[in-house]
User: Fold these one by one.
Assistant:
Number 1:
Amino acid sequence: MPARGKFITVEGVDGAGKSSHLQFIADLAGGKGAGTAAPGRHVIVTREPGGTDLAERLRKSILEEPMAPLAEALLLFAARTDHVQKVIAPALAAGSWVVSDRFTDATLAYQGAGKGVPEDLIRRLAQAVHAGLAPDRTLVFDCPYDIARERLAGSGRSLDRFEREERAFHERVRNAYLALARAEPARIRIVDASGDFAGVRKALERELSGL
């Protein structure tokens, strides 16, 4: 029976640039470069909300349709249930490493701190959906609001309704991520995403070492 794979999640405020480094993180996890794992390790890259047909359909509604914060949280956990059961848990059990663009920390930051859904409710939902499953390492891409806004403005694409939220919302989200990192320093690592590509990638190599 293969050893359980490792679960890496990537988090951060919209515009911090995490998506630009997902493949690099997967390459590190697979041992391609100055990473942490042996060469040839199988790595799956996925995202939330999303990762399955059902979750991708829910993603479209979550990102586009105005709704109450509690409805957002419940839909996110519905998508997460399908994602965990069909993708994440089976892959880890088979010995693969999984790199996910967002997981439950995002719900705590966005729907919890950002929109006021009670933290204890989110944690109870997490316990129901993925009891015993937590990331082995979480990388939080962090940068000031003004830098994130400038990057989003220069992306040339239509922004979703979370990306269009006001400054105060994004600052609550950012502060929530920093608080989560302070509470769980062994798992959650802050990556300064305000600098250049090369600097960010050196930080990623450092924060993934030892897995």
Note: The beta strands are 7-12, 43-47, 97-101, 137-142, 188-192.
Number 2:
Amino acid sequence: MNRFRSAPRFRKSFGIAIARDNILYITEALLDPLVVVFAVWMVASMYEGGLKPPYLILSVILFSLTFPSSSKITLTPSEVVSNTFVNWVFISGLLVAFGLATGYLSYFPAAAILAWLWMTPVLMLMAIFALRIVAPVLIKLQGPTKRTIIVGINEQGLALAERLAENNYIAAELLGFFEDRSEERIPVKDMKYPTLGTIDDISAYVKEHRVNIIYLSLHMASQPRIVRLLDELKDTTASIYFVPDIFLSDLIQGRIGQIDDIPVVAVCETPFVGFNGVLKRLADIVISSLILIMISPILLAIAIGVKLGSPGPIIFKQRRYGLYGEEIYVYKFRSMTVCEDGDKVTQATKEDQRITPFGAFLRKTSLDELPQFINVLQGRMSIVGPRPHAVAHNEMYRKLITGYMVRHKVKPGITGWAQVNGLRGETETLNKMKARIDYDIDYLRNWSLKLDMYIILKTVLVVFKGQDGAY
């Protein structure tokens, strides 16, 4: 399966903060929103002589769309540039399309719009590179370097130590580990950091060496030891953080929240909750509406071609699983002589005799999928998301692949992360289907607007290139 798998191009960054009041964290979260608003104000001053109501409204919209900005300070310069431009192309394109559709764009001079479009990403890049220069000063403002220990030599503890060592923007000095097991029982040899003692030694060590931060990297089964240790550490002034071993699992949108005063950990969640859901739906409506208007002559020509090519309906409707595994009907231009939608559905294969000559062209170019933009407007699908499989295939693969149904925590898409990474069309082996599911789950785990934009742009390139795999 690994040969079909690749690391996700876009990884969500959850910041570098040890706490939410970290000065550098707050600065990064506000950086993009303040820059885009500043750019609007600059353009308003240059072309209008002051801030008029349309510019103030645009400022509020932009701040809402970009706050909080993702952490870019640890990225390479080329990653910063690509991340900034892809993100800006999507946001600005969405706003311009919305402005054209509503007529709101007429409130701004054309010269002002053009200046704003090129000025904003340039200012954003200048701001992030300037932040890299002043970051050491911000870190010093937070106080002296924090003396840190990790309790528990295990996978998550070692991963945490590696992050602390690699990140130059965390003011922490790792002194070492505490572990009850003997050296013979510790699975890791040649550790970079010393073992400072057992868990019973922690309280005394913390007091003697003025330790500021303690990370408890203990297994959930160690609850009695954790409770006893916490009682002992109440006699110190160290900050204590728990690194639960559940984070070794492949969390989907994993984060910590609370219900009133009770903390809860999200283990498997949809990325499209709250504002993200509204943003995703708004983008789907605007983009699909514009595309349907532009391709309406193509839809008419294809409909005539399907009708003349072979007897049968123009539109083929097939039951698929949608959001939360509920059945929906997905529209496609008919490309076969059959319309299978029963308990057994045979995937199309190379040189499949059921495919019509015109249908082969439609499937190769993905033009048969165009009616699904209507599904998007109906709210049944999204432009980007895991591709929907026939119900019969779902029922088969959910028994064979662990986590298969997780992909249905979001609406199915016309195109997806798996499809632009070579897993389009027939999945004749179980390994290929597993690889497709891996990419679908990667998409859920790392969703962002810029990832959607990247997938849309890459889909266009894949279609024009004529990627193999679609029969």
Note: Residues 275-309 form the longest helix (35 residues).
Number 3:
Amino acid sequence: MTPATVIEIGRNAIELMLTVSAPLFIAALATGLLVSIFQAATSINEATLSFVPKVVVLFGVLIVFGPWMITLMTDYMRRLFEAIPGMIG
């Protein structure tokens, strides 16, 4: 296994991680922004008001995008395991 192969595997893993986590990050960011605007407009500074909506939205995003995320991760692992004989020999 060459250093280039290791770098390629690491790069692919980081790309997969960013791709899989992007829907969750975007949903949390959008929810946090909306809750912050609501809190600023109403002068309500309740800690649970910023936490609970994010959790609910993240669960919804996981329900919607979960199968897609699992498919991407299992495809990557399958390709990685199938490439092991070529990397060793």
Note: The two ends are 8 Å apart (CA to CA).
